[in-house]
């Protein structure tokens, strides 16, 4: 099985998959649910995006912006059960600088997840630092201070030399996600991240803007939430070889995002999603990630614990 077999489904993003219907009393209902390859449950990134959008609808977005989201998945969402997921938002705190929302998602009288979503006003001054980006695409120098390796030219070369694969879908509301691997998978070690460059193309982004019903500035954040789960769950497998034909089941137990510069997130331009795994054992893996803009600015940090079931005769210890 090739890498493309794992990631091909993530090249299609349905505009209606991001939509939420307002059903009153700070309650919102999904329109369309999606299950990715090798999973039996609704895609976790979709649930994360829904939680973020539902919480945003209960705050004054002109004054507050998201700073954190902690999701605990309680039971699997079922995309084919005939019932959509209901998101209920409760206001836990409304302060002058910070506010907190509790989001509960239910389906068929089951709790699917609970999430705490934090918002805050942007403040000036104080201390400031960030982890350096492995690559920078500004053309002058990388965020680490080294001369960059003409990454912009390399991407341009790939775009012109690689044939674009057509997305087979009966849906018209789609946005392609282009992904590039800058590392040789065979040489990945446990201390090294797996770097993926992404962007939504112009046609796809315009479709999302016109048909998702989400304001443009917020749509960048919502799509970033969707994509935050797209490769993170597999990070525990990278040190042991990926793709792995012994993988039988994978699901997320939780998902955390800390937003550092949500106002700068732009998913219609190239950005870097760096993911890695500091630990895996007992059929669980801890995965962490960092999402950078092409200028090296750290947009957000992610963390997730996953369950990974492999063939009974499979064993790999590094």
What is the compact description of this entry?
With 318 residues, the protein is of the alpha+beta class. Helix content is 17%, strand content 33%. Strands 1, 2, 3, 4, 5, 6, 7, 8, 9, 10, 11, 12 and 13 form a 13-stranded antiparallel sheet that branches.
What features would you highlight for this structure?
single chain, alpha+beta, Porin, 13-stranded antiparallel β-sheet, globular
How does this structure look, described?
This protein has helices spanning 3-7, 15-18, 44-56, 151-161, 202-211, 216-227, and strands at 20-24, 27-30, 65-73, 86-94, 98-107, 110-120, 177-181, 194-200, 247-252, 254-259, 271-281, 284-293, 298-310. The protein has 318 residues and is an alpha+beta fold. It has a single domain (3-121, 148-316), classed as Porin. Strands 1, 2, 3, 4, 5, 6, 7, 8, 9, 10, 11, 12 and 13 form a 13-stranded antiparallel beta sheet that branches. α3 packs antiparallel against α6. The longest helix has 13 residues, at 44-56. It starts with a helix and ends in an 8-residue tail after the last strand.
């Amino acid at each position: 099985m090739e890498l493309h077999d794992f990631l091909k489904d993530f090249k299609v993003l349905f505009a209606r998959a991001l939509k939420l219907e307002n059903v009153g009393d700070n309650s919102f209902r999904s329109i369309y649910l999606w299950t990715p390859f090798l999973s039996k449950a609704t895609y976790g990134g979709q649930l994360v995006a829904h939680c973020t959008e539902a919480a945003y609808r209960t705050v004054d977005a002109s004054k507050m912006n998201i700073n954190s989201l902690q999701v605990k998945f309680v039971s699997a969402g079922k995309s084919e059960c005939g019932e959509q997921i209901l998101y209920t938002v409760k206001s836990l705190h409304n302060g002058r600088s910070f506010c907190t929302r509790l989001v509960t998602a239910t389906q068929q009288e089951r709790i699917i997840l609970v999430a705490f979503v934090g918002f805050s006003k942007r403040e000036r001054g104080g201390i400031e630092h960030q982890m350096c980006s492995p690559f920078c695409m500004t053309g002058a120098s990388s965020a680490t201070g080294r001369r960059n390796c003409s990454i912009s030219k390399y991407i341009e070369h790939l775009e012109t030399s690689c044939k674009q694969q057509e997305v087979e879908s009966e849906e018209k509301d789609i946005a392609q996600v282009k992904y590039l691997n800058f590392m040789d998978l065979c040489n990945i070690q446990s201390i090294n991240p797996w770097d993926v460059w992404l962007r939504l193309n112009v046609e796809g982004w315009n479709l999302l803007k016109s048909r998702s019903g989400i304001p443009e500035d917020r749509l960048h954040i919502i799509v970033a939430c969707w994509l935050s789960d797209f490769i993170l769950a597999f990070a525990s497998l990278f040190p042991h070889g990926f793709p792995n034909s012994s993988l039988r089941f994978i699901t997320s137990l939780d998902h955390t995002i800390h937003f550092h510069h949500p106002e700068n997130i732009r998913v219609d331009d190239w950005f870097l999603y760096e993911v890695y795994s500091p630990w895996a054992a007992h059929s669980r893996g801890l995965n962490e990630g960092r999402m950078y803009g092409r200028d090296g600015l750290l947009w957000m940090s992610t963390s997730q614990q996953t369950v990974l079931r492999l063939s009974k005769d499979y064993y790999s210890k590094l």
